[in-house]
Amino acid sequence: MTPQRLRTLIEQVQQGRLDVDGAMEQLAHFPIETVRDHDGIIARLDTHRQLRHGFPEVILAQGKRFPHLQHIVTQTLQRPGAVLITRLSKKRQRRLQDHFPELQGEHDSRCLYREETPQEEKTGLVAVFSAGTADVPVATEAALTARLMGAKVATHFDSGVAGLHRLLAAGDLLTQANVFIVIAGMEGALPSVVGGLVNKPVIAVPTSQGYGAAFGGLSALLGMLNSCAANVTTVNIDNGFGAGYVAGLINRLASPEP
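The structure assignment produced for this chain is given below.
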C-alpha cells in the first residue's frame, strides 16, 4: 500500500466513485498479509511499511528455503511499488528470474529488484566510494538501495588509501553529494579520509575483505567506529543495504520537494 494509492482510495470514497465495501475489499490485506504454504504460515508481510517509512519492506533472501522465498516474492509482486530482494546467490538469482522475469538484476549486488521511480524523478545525490575492487559487491548493494529510494547515485570505485590520488580524482563529486557512503575492508581507513574532506554525513561500511588479522571485517569495523572524523557513522560488516537505506533517508531530508 503506497501513500498515493491510499490517498486515491480515500478520494474515491469521498467523491462517491467507490463504495465502502469496495474500499474494504482493496484494504483486505492491509496492514499485514499472511503468506502460507503446506508448512503453514511462513511470513507476515508488512504492507504498511511504505506508509510509515517511505519504502516497502525488503526481502532478505539469506537463510530462507527457496520455496518459502518464492512464495514471499509471488505475493510481494502482486502489490504496486518498488521491490528489493537482497543477499541472493547467483544460482538463486537465476532461479528467481526464471520464475519472475519482471525482476531485474544488478551486477555484483547480489540483489534483484523492481524499480518504481523513473530516473528523471530521482532527486539529490548520494555518492558511493569503495576502497578496492573486492568491495564492489557491497558498494553496488548500497548504491542500488539508495537509488530505489529515489536518490540520484554516483559511484567512485577503487579509491583506497594506498593511492589517495585515486580518491581526489573524484573531483566535484566530493562537494556535490548530500551524503557519502564509503566502503572499505582491510584496516578501514578510507571513511576517515573522506570525512576529513567533506562537510556532509559519511556512512562507513566495513567489508569482510582482508588478510588474517582483518578478522573478517572486524578490524575495519573497529577502525571506523574509532574514526577521528566527527561526521562519520558506521554500519555493520558488509551491510551495504543498511548504508544505502539510511543514505536514501538523509538524501530525502536534504533534497527540496519537487
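Interim note for the steering committee: Residues 31-114 form one domain. The mean pLDDT is 87.
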